[in-house]
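Consider the tokenized backbone below.
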């Protein structure tokens, strides 16, 4: 009788160890998934901040007059900013960092760039999407 009671206790302990191990393994997988998601969100936030910084830099940059399109690659912000001047003297500044894009509209008035005070947009502000593509 005593041997049988010992075996059932041993099986119960082994069962608890197996269940605990499976639980810890599942928690480890869940932790890795959440860590991966947090890293992706952190990267997206950094790229978003970089795109905003590129637009801010571009709005004070002395762009060369007389060119319809011009771009500057900036390693510091891991992206580039471009300025496009249209025939009606409206301008569109575009910034890209990683997967993030930002646009800022404005006008060219007496060879002076004046950007809209309402700020940047995270969607193409032009009717033709091709006009919002980086050259």
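A designed sequence for it:
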């Amino acid at each position: 009788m005593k041997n049988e009671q010992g075996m059932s206790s041993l099986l119960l302990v082994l069962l608890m160890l197996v269940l605990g191990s499976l639980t810890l393994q599942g928690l480890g997988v869940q932790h890795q998934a959440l860590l991966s998601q947090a890293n992706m969100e952190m990267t997206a936030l950094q790229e978003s901040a970089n795109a905003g910084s590129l637009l801010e830099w571009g709005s004070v940059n002395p762009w060369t007059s007389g060119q319809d399109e011009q771009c500057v690659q900036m390693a510091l912000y891991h992206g580039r900013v471009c300025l496009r001047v249209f025939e009606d003297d409206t301008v569109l500044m575009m910034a890209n960092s990683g997967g993030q894009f930002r646009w800022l509209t404005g006008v060219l008035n007496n060879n002076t760039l004046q950007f809209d005070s309402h700020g940047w947009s995270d969607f193409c502000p032009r009717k033709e999407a091709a006009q919002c593509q980086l050259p």
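The mean pLDDT is 90.
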